Amino acid sequence: MASLVQQIIIYAIPILLAVILHEVAHGWVADRLGDPTARYSGRLTLNPAAHIDLFGTILLPLVLLISGGFIFGYAKPVPINPYNLRNPRRDIIWVSLAGIMTNLALAAVCAMVFRILASSSPGSWGFIVNPLMMMLMASVRINIILAVFNAVPIPPLDGSRVLAYLLPPAQSAVFSKLEPYGFIIILLLFFTGMINFIWPIIRFFMVLLLGPYMI
């Protein structure tokens, strides 16, 4: 029980930061490109109360943590109205990539701090440094998983918006019709193990950012 509580404490803040900053990034970029929907909805804030989804932010990560699976979660999607964007078809790409790039940037910052702490003597910090380093390591892992998973081109994941832009208009319109079935497709990928193609990519980024400290 103590170990589980410790894990919850270590993973709680990284998960919250990862999913909240992911959604805020979507809304902030959309606002800069002409769509103020997220701002008017009060979603351009770091206040967790505005973003927490009971299942995606709390229950799902907790169940995965208890079951020993990889840790994943999500916040309430930020409302975006693409028709407000100055160039809807192009700008939705930047809005979609904002969340992915934010998670990668957060992973890079946490990895840098982790490396600095790992290469220096803890000195009088002692008991503070180890939990902090465990939290930083968790943050690197969680943010990379979120970035890579969201890059998968299946609606409603961010990667699907990018693919829709790259496809010719006719094919893009057909592809967009998959969105109502997106979560079913994602579940099938998990249950069949076909989603496992993301793990080498995740490991690549882990090794890239953590190098010899990769565990």
Question: Describe it for me?
Answer:
The structure is a single chain. The chain has 215 residues and is mostly helical. The chain has one domain. It has helices at 2-32, 37-40, 54-67, 88-119, 129-150, 158-166, 169-176, 182-192, 198-210. Helix 4 packs across helix 6 and helix 5 (129-150) crosses helix 9. The longest helix is centred in the middle third of the chain and has 32 residues, at 88-119.
Give the strand content: under 5%
Helix content: 55-70%
**Secondary-structure element order, N to C:** HHHHHHHHH
Rg of Cα set: 18 Å
Provide the number of structural domains: 1
Mean pLDDT: 88
Largest sheet: none
Number of E-state strands: 0
Structural class: mainly alpha
Terminal-residue CA separation: 24 Å
What would you call the shape? globular
Low-confidence stretches: none
Number of helices: 9
Secondary structure blueprint with pairings:
Layout: H1 2-32, H2 37-40, H3 54-67, H4 88-119, H5 129-150, H6 158-166, H7 169-176, H8 182-192, H9 198-210
Describe this structure in a few short sentences.
By secondary structure, the protein is mainly α.
Keywords:
215 residues, mainly alpha, 9 helices, globular
